[in-house]
Amino acid sequence: MNKRSAVIGLDGAAWQLIDDMLDNGVMPRLKAIKDAGASGILTSTVPTYTPPAWTSAATGVNPGRHGVYGFVEGHAQWERQELMHAGKVKSATVWEMANAQGRSAGIFHLPLTFPASDLNGWMVSGMMTPGYGERPPQGFTAPKELEQKIHAWAPNYAIDVSANWEKDYRDAALCERIQASLQQRVTVLRKLLDEEPVDVLFSVLESPDRMQHVYYRYMDPNDDMYYTPEAKRLRPDIWRCFQAMDEIVGVLDDYARDSGGVLVVSDHGFTAWEVSVHTNALLEQWGYLKVKSGAKVMQTSLARKMVPLAKRILPAKVAREAKGRTFAAIDWSQTKAFASPIPQQGIFVNLKGRERFGIVDPSELEAIKTDLVKRFTELEGPDGTRVTDRVYRSEDVFSGTANVGAPDVLPVLKDHRWEIDDEIFHKSAFTDLSHLPRGAHHPDGIVIVAGAGVKPQADLKASVLDVTPTLLYLAGAAVPTGLDGHVMESAFEDAHLASSPPTTTEGPDTGTRDESSPYSAEEEAMIEESLRGLGYI
Questions:
Q1: What are phi and psi of 383, to 5 degrees?
Q2: What's the CA gap between 265 and 260, in Å, rounded?
Q3: Rounded to whole angstroms, how far apart are CA atoms 288 and 349?
Q4: 219: closest CA among 179, 181, 269, 257?
Q5: Using CB atoms within 10 A as the burial measure, which of 3, 66, 324, 388 is most buried?
Q6: What whole-number percentage of the chain has pLDDT above 90?
Q7: How many C-beta neighbours within 10 Å does residue 356 have?
């Protein structure tokens, strides 16, 4: 009989928040797993965003090989920026690796798995699946008939919960929506595991990320806002959501820990979002980007204030078209570098032969990257102190041939509390957001390994690339050769590794994926509206 192993994915979970809840008795099942297991920091990808990070966790390779860098493929110069989907993933997935060895797999709400693909087992697709609000999702399961079962088990089933960081922090309405979704989630998961047990399970709860984008500073005991009346009023509702998540953690722990083992992981951590850094404004100041003279009128204070207002009140299609028109204000014939879409957290050089309006000769590329690294390294904030921790070049963090969408330079400012964006029409490069409770992504996620042979400890260090190899190892399966990630061997006792050493095998052929968009125009607008609410576009 095959061993069972399971990933318990908590999107965006961070120890400074989780430990506070464990200390206050909010998540007893998670505490029991942590006490029995090896726990520590799981380092995210660069960029530190859901699409590249979860895809790396589910493939064991870096974004340069799987080709996912953000929620869209493309940038400001593309005629059409296409939403990412499962067909865009260019490397083998953990369920393909398991199936190739005769192991069944269950995939539950993993982002970027729409459209659901056939497999030995079952799949319920996650974030980026169309179907929000009053419209129920369709085409989100494999096999297809599973969809009808899920709608019967949990009518009006929600694949994701939309959040809006510009308004949801004021009350507990988001918490109520999340609790309702989690009640559906536990019902469906219990039914699935009872009726269709699988060997390898990869599950993700997106709820921590949604809540932390909105309420982060109300949740972090190291933040002054934790002690405000607003935080004290909302925290019981926030904690009830995490109690509901803990019930699901318990279901998954019961299912797999005593067989092969469980991995509790997050794709990234979180921190307070203090400042928005308007990268295109910096590039304009440095002479790398040019705005057409007729568009200078938008650099007035009133015009700049209208941009975020338009995002809030315009229909998604109109807002998308309006943002496209703002990029039309860039004079590409005099622009050598420009900001990537927000989730890529970087800068593209306007390279000839690669970009539609490229003007930079390839012989200049390295010199421009070197100059941008230098300028960001020396960048000072409004108070005159330097703000940049480090600047990655693309070759520092990406290796492989799937380079479409990879920024050339990726700066990290103020330990990720200062996040860069792709807006234009800003005279000042910095907008202070520290009066709001919003959160932003941080590379330090969480990891717990629990199961047979695990050595209890609290100083484990691993990467999201290590999730797939370790999940396969816990199930007693071999790990494909050539992955960037490795089994988290430091989590296990030496004697266990000696008696059950990791084994390797050839990786499966991914076959031909359908890269054409699975979304209708209406579905695209619906998904973009949800991404806009989280500040991703």
A1: -90, 5
A2: 16
A3: 9
A4: 269
A5: 66
A6: 83
A7: 11
